[in-house]
Amino acid sequence: MLPRTLYRYYERRLARSLPPGSLPRHIGVILDGHRRFAREEGHASYQDSYRAGMAKLEELLGWCSELGIGAVTAWVLSTDNLRRPREELEPYFQVLGELLSRLPRLASQLGFSLAVSGSLDLLPRELAVAAKEAATAGARAPAGMQVNIALCYGGRQEIVDACRALVADLLAQGLSPAEVPDAIDADGIAEHLYAADLPDTDLVIRTSGESRLSGFLLWQSAYAEFAFVDPYWPAFRRVDLLRALRDYSRRQRRFGA
User: Fold this and answer.
1) 203-215 per-position pLDDT tens digit
2) Which residues pair with 71 in a beta bridge?
3) Catalytic residue (one of 32, 48, 148, 202)
4) pLDDT digits over 73-97, tens only?
5) What's the rounded Cα separation, in Å, for the pair 25 and 176?
6) 174 phi-psi bin (left φ>0, alpha ψ -120 to 50, beta other)
7) Is residue 4 part of a domain?
8) Which of 43, 71, 126, 210 is deepest in the core (most CB within 10 A)?
9) Structural domain boundaries enclosing 234
10) In-domain check, residue 154
11) Catalytic: which of 48, 80, 81, 121?
12) How many domains does the chain have?
């Protein structure tokens, strides 16, 4: 009991140490390490680890809601992940479907709005429908925290899609093809990103010890701070989040200046 008591004391102390007004408005989280966690824990299948990871995501949303974080984007599946063997993807698709069925109720309980962004047309039809239904139901939740589930998401593709949508809008407004290039600017592209209503990302957290973005929120993270933490995603703890927030609060952000 003593170690657990000390751990809880340390966790409370960390939470109290966060200066008022120092928290990021928007946190991006790369949920990495499910399969390595499964191997180390001796799970019979990756699906057990995937379920533990999605339960951890629900915990994270609760922690962020308690702390007053304004927005969270969680990357649960990349477009690159689709190249994995079918026998790995199908169990994960099932777990993602289970998560999407629970998220609207969690959104109502915690008071957040829910969006799902990515190339949903590349997913199996059943999962794509589940994602759209979850987003529709979650959009009706009280809009406190904003939660964005990045599903079948790739940062480069998002920018390509935003540029295409901007050009289409400009042409629809009556601009000639010759006038379009001069009308393209950063604000216009930003307005056509998948979750354009979210502020730019302030803090990106990646688990499993990997120190790269892998294409996550490339546009939105131009001036973000980064926290690369060692635990695999299913083993991520509230104290790991609090440490990342503490370190973030101590940094002097320059936004390129």
Assistant:
1) 999 999 999 999 9
2) 26, 146
3) 32
4) 999 999 999 999 988 899 999 999 9
5) 39
6) left
7) no
8) 71
9) 24-249
10) yes
11) 81
12) 1
Q: Which structure tokens are listed for 181? A: 């290039």
- Any domain includes 11: no
Is 148 in the active site? no
Predicted TM-score (pTM) of the model is: 0.93
The residue assigned the tokens 């477009």 is 79
